[in-house]
Amino acid sequence: MSGLPPQVPWRRFVRVLRKLGYTPQKGKAGSARSFFNPRRSPSLVSFRDPHPGQNMRQRMLHEYFRKLLLTPDEFMQLLEDC
Known about the structure:
Blueprint: E1 7-9, H1 10-19, E2 23-24, E3 32-36, E4 44-48, E5 55-57, H2 58-68, H3 72-79
Antiparallel strand pairs: 1-5, 2-3, 3-4
């Protein structure tokens, strides 16, 4: 794999989403968080806050890469400055 770390903090993942142009949407109570970018496909994506703790594990990251249509290498490039 492309040097993907075993865990990524949720806050860094959100920074990557912002780099991609996504903005957080107001949501209801619960752990689901939605992000919107009208210029990207998919334009609306939802993710769950990691529990327990605030770190996302590789399995969850891979699932979210598929949602965002990103490769692990693309994600790692975006993650560099976050």
